[in-house]
User: What shape does this take?
Amino acid sequence: MAAQRKTSRYVVPIAVAGIAAATIGLVPALAASGDPDLPEITAQQLIEKIAASDTQTLSGTFKISTDLGLPAFDGLLGGLAGGGSGEGSADPSAQLTKLVSGTHTLKIAADGPERQKLTLLDGKEQYSLVHNGDEVWAYDSASNQVFHEKGAEEAGRAPEKELPASPKALADEVLKAAGDTTSITVGGTANVAGRDAYRLVIAPKQQGSTVEAVTIAVDAATGTPLKFTLDSTSGGKPVVDAGFTKVDFARPAASEFDFTVPKGAEVTEGDQLEKDHAGKAPEDLEKALGDFGLGGAGQNGPEVVGEGWTAIATFDTGEAAPKTEDAPKEARGFLDALGDEVSGKFGSGTVFKTKIVNALMTDDGKVYVGAVTPQALVDAANAAK
Assistant: This one.
């Protein structure tokens, strides 16, 4: 289990596939002006096309922009987790956290499940992550640091999960599990990275969700997801806008996945990194959260109120919530920028807001979290009284 968890740090999702409690809208695609004129297709047929896709090889340029409506928090996670790998490290678990904010350009190559390469371009500097067979290499040009782990393929092997026998069977399973909280339709067509694509639009029917819609651009020829967009009800820029700007489905050259340690670079082995930081970063993070009244969260496991897009997780920290000034200094300004004081039948508390996920911490230590509006959190707290 520990080995699987360690290796899972290197998995970088290119497309997000997670559709639950959904209603499939059988609305055919209608091409808008300027978009490719493709044959009509229903949402069920498009889901079948995605399920039938067997893309094993590709290369290209991928751009991801993330706007959570948060103040800048570069270094915040590293500051809270003190002792973990941060700037000047090639450890993937530290470097890939950069993708949760701002705009980034990546070069991507894949040749089946055994060989992948990702290069994060950051001005003149680059960060490269290479998986080749049973080895993982990572290189940070800014610090001339190398991370290496052997046996990654074996460590990441997980038991196979039985899946429906055909794309249609998989689509039928989605239909069977469908509820009345979500609408899934085909919202026209698009051109992504020079490829004709259909737009699969997933949107909540419920009131109170902060999610406006999730849109996945699906390659019309291969069924491969090319772009993912998550929009918030607050409007403005998408919360996540991630997709290929260039893509080629030909097999990359084998040499693309070779790695040679640059001259003078310092190499850190994965096993040694685990030993050096065993228990340290989690303990420091737990202390930081405990200082802000969240240390008891794990003692009283969360309960879920509601369903679908408006589900709210709630738990009791077991102690009165401190004020923002009691938070770790690394987080103080960050929390000040997020928090709004609220009150109701539950008493009083603070709502910490992003464009998608909001959290209410009451003064008596109860926490309500969900991809819902602040008012929905207040209503849930009032209902609990």
Summary: The chain is about 20% helix and 35% strand. Confidence is low (pLDDT under 50) at residues 1-33, 73-86, 154-163, 280-299. The domain at 280-383 is CATH 3.30.310 (TATA-Binding Protein). The two ends are 40 Å apart (CA to CA).
